[in-house]
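Hi V.,

You were right to ask for the full record rather than a summary. Here it is.
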Amino acid sequence: MLPGPLNLPKWLDENEHLLKPPINNYCVYDKDITVMIVGGPNARTDYHINETAEWFYQYRGSMLLKVIDQDNFKDIPIREGEMFLLPPNIPHNPVRFADTVGIVLEQPRPAESRDRLRWYCQSCGEIVNEEAFHCTDLGSQIKEAVNKFKSSEEKRKCKMCGELADLVPRNVVQP
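Predicted structure:
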C-alpha cells in the first residue's frame, strides 16, 4: 500500500529535534530513492564522495556546499528555495547553519560502490585521511568515520606539512 504524502512543515513541527549534530539528518524515505531532511548547524570538515548524483533543495535558510571541482576548492551557496544537482564523484562538504533545513535526495548505491569520506589539510590542501565503505546507513556510517577521525591525532596529521587537520571549518560565512 502506498504511504500518504509527507507534510514537511507539520513533520518539522513534530520532529525537528531529530536533526541534531554531528550529521543532522533524518531519512524519511529509503526505498527507490533516499530522501533525507537535514538541519543545521553542523561543523564537519570531511568531504563526502559517492558514485551517484545528489540533489539538494534548501527549504529554510541557506547552506554552503564546499566542493572540489577539477582540483580547485570552491564554495557553492544554495539559498532558500534553490536546488542544486551534484554530479557523481565530486568531493563535497555540506555546511549548514543554525535554524536551516534542507532536503537531500540520493540514489541507491550499487552493490559494488564505495562511498568515501576524505579530509584535506586546511593549510596545504593535501589529502590527510580517507575512509571508504559500502553505504547502507549513511547517517550512522558517516558519524562513525567522523568520530574515528576526530579521536586520532595520527589520522589528522598531514604527511606533507605536519599540520593537524581542523575539526571545524575555517572562515565559513553564511551566504
